[in-house]
Amino acid sequence: MKSTHLSTSLVALAIGLLTVGANGEKLTDSLKPGQPDLKSASQLAFGPEGILFAADTKGAAIFAIATGDTTPASGSHPLKVEAVNQKVAALLGTSADQILIEDLAVNPISRNAYLAVSRGRGPEATPVLVRVKSDAKMETVSLENVKFSKAILPDAPTEGVVGSGQRQSNPRQESITDIAFLEDRVLIAGLSNEEFSSTLRAVPFPFRTVGNGTSVEIYHGAHGRFETRSPVRTFVPFKIGDEPNLLAAYTCTPLVRFPLSELRAGAKIRGTTIAELGNRNRPLDMIVYQKDGKDYLLMANSSRGVMKVSTDNIEKTEPILAHVPGGGTKGLTYETIKDWTGVDQLDRLDGQFALVVRRGDGGSLNLESLPLP
Amino acid sequence: MSRDRWPGIGHALILCASLTGCVIRTSAPVAQISTYLTVTVETNTVAVVIQDGLTVRWVKHRSEPGKMVVEIEGLSAQSLGALQRTPLDQDQWTEIVRVHVDPNREPSIAGVPPVQGRYEVLSDRVSFTPSFPVQPGMTYRVELHPEKLPGSSPPKSKPFAAWFQTPAPVVTPKTTVQQVYPSASTLPENLLKFYVHFSGPMSRGGIYSHIQLLDASGQAVELPFLEIDEELWNPDLTRLTLFIDPGRIKRGVKPLEEIGPALESGKRYTLAIDRNWRDADGAPLRADYRKVFDVGPPDRDPPHPQAWRIKPPSAGTREPVVLEFPDPMEHGLAQRLIWVADSGQHKMPGEVTLANEERRWSFVPAANWKTGPHQIVASAVVEDLAGNSIGRPFEVDVFEKIQSEISDETITLPFTIR
Question: Would you list the domain boundaries of chain A?
Fold first, then answer.
């Protein structure tokens, strides 16, 4: 979904995407050939060297897959695929009502778009990764004999509650609501279907072990309470100075900043609420970008078009510690980009364009590039 | 169908009532169409279209049920040889033969990508295996361009298309809403969630349009639930978790400004689920579902295990051990995170049931009880209906330091089997 950083890290990002590690080893060297056994594909994020991270909610795992898609893009090209849901369905031999487009991520090297697709809507649905190239041609990403590795998330449901005579499957499942890659870590936000608690994990990559989910605690201005258990909807990694941070959006839309160094196994961290963006509004997706030397955040949300938030001097923003009455707004200010309606998925295509999946007429979804506002 | 609709190419439509036999359906007499097409149905083959000695065969996959393979026979030795010598890429193959989904049998399907699959050149034929099983009730168009075959000049065959319609699915409503938890008819104002249990697997996507919370006058409460795009299902899609939007749960003594709470004490509500919600087979539910409930005062008091009562069973039986709570507990967590340990502290296999509006937890062991000390073990994560877990209220005041944490702590309640 996102692999973008604020200005201070843009150069480092570009270098990081193309260079090898200090000891001369490439990250893809840690991946082993085989067939990743994805049980579902929900959230996507790109790392360096064309490595695609795919979250598998059903299998409670994160896969790192070497796409081999490492030919750098040349120039900046707008992209538009109308009725992308119908076209993806056609590619998969089915109809649009039989698929779900779960997420979008742009490979920052090739600028090809990747879609996580569910073919089928029932429990037997097949996860498929679809690549949309800059000429709008689409193809499935072969998962046969690719280099990959897999991190199983801890606290994953244990297999089966033992019953007398028959095994009953464990109903607990943690939905992965977002993932991102930053420096040497994959960041994973999850929400359980039983306990109302949000977990945020930082998993070192190459994968070794996965720490216990860190319990997240923020001050939620609109409610006048600490939300110890408010779910993270979407987040972006970025740097403030040299310090890697996460900017996370919660339901009922406070924007919260965490220093990444605080994300440790089992630790309880306290985020800084830096904006309260109002009620009746679900955040859906976010990117950060730079324009005319200034840093911005774009947030797609359920009710008011895309919000553009200036993140200049974010480190100096006074934390919100008091109740924000009336479902109001506070902290960082935003403007609404009204033309960007119906945006469900959002990623940065390049320095000029964002790439979105947005709802068009008659239930169709369009994949299109929009000039960064 | 008329020839004019698809100028320049021959065509046939084969409708399959089952995957063992198909019939030709055409507005033109068969004799007329057979002047350039011959259509037959053979054993173990769904359909065959023949034109000028070229055969397009739509056959069942040998090992993968539901998958179909398109085979082209009658190619010249020169063409087959050229195809074997010079492997084609996907784009080159689709110039010669391609399969499209084409439900409306369009004159042209430019811009619609062909079905992804694998092309193979065998000794006497070319085959195309789509990557995925065919969809019931879908029409597939196979387009063959013999003139683009290598080694076939001058081309002896014209391009042609054949449509294959797979059997329509039998959509019979059979799935029902089996139960909604909490099952009590009076719920606290700060209720945290519902579980909706279905009798069979459901389909994902756009579910919130089928669920409404109605007030006493039948008006829908605006956005009462936390709408998560990922949708909070269990793995087999038979249980949906529906959290009340945390921004709509009344907190403390202050009412929420602007939008107001989803549930208010003293009022009556209905959780309404409409039958147009599709199950995993695409069938609607057998019936609408309604749960009517009254809302009582908020519950901000965490469960106190010291108030729980155990009724131990007798040795040598498989009677249940019963644990009674003064107030209803949250169904999913109480079902999963309360268990029995034997005298050796081992978790015992058996079956857990919650009854009496989730005030009564019982456990039937897989084998007869043995005499000696036992324990009921409850995770501290277990909650009441308002999300208060053991020793930890759901709401934590802003100026209070938070002491307790989400942890793996458990509470043990000893009992003895005699």
Answer: 7-157+173-371
- The closest alpha carbon to B191, from B225, B223, B239, B240, belongs to B225
Task: Decide: B226 and A251 in contact? Cβ < 8 Å.
Answer: yes
- Contact between A230 and B246 using a beta-carbon 8 Å cutoff: yes
Distance CA B360, CA B356 (A): 6
Cβ of B243 and A125 within 8 Å? Answer: no
Kindly list the domain boundaries of chain B, sorted by start residue. 3-165, 177-296, 305-417
A219 touches chain B (CB under 8 A): yes
A161 touches chain B (CB under 8 A): yes
CATH 2.130.10 fits A7-157+173-371, yes or no: yes
**Global ipTM:** 0.86
CATH class held by domain B177-296: mainly beta
Residue A249: strand, helix, or coil: strand
- Picking from B223, B351, B405, the nearest residue to A268 by CB comes out as B405
Separation of first and last alpha carbons in chain A: 19
Distance from CA of A329 to the nearest CA of B (A): 13
Cβ–Cβ of A191/B230 closer than 8 Å? yes
Place of tokens 């490595």: A51
> From CA A246, how far away is CA A227, in angstroms rounded?
17
Give the closest of A58, A125, A196 to B192, CB-based: A196
Q: Which of residues 173-212 of A touch B (CB under 8 A)?
A: 173, 175-177, 191, 193-197
Phi and psi at B319, nearest 5°, equal -65, 155
Give chain A positions within 8 Å (CB) of B205. 100, 121
Mutation for testing the B interface, residue in A195, A199, A232, A359 having most B CBs under 10 Å: A195
Helix (H) or strand (E) holding B333: helix B331-337
Q: What is the pLDDT, as a whole number, of residue B154? A: 54
Provide the CATH number for the domain formed by B305-417 in this structure.
Answer: 2.60.40.1220
Residues of chain A under the 70 pLDDT cut: 1-24, 154-169, 209-230, 251-253, 264-269, 278-280, 320-330
A65-110: pLDDT as tens digits: 999 999 999 888 899 999 999 999 999 999 999 999 999 999 999 9
DSSP states of B151-180 = T-PSP-S--EEEEEEPPPP-------EEEE
For B142, B251, B411, the CA distances from A139, given in Å and listed in that order, are 19, 50, 53
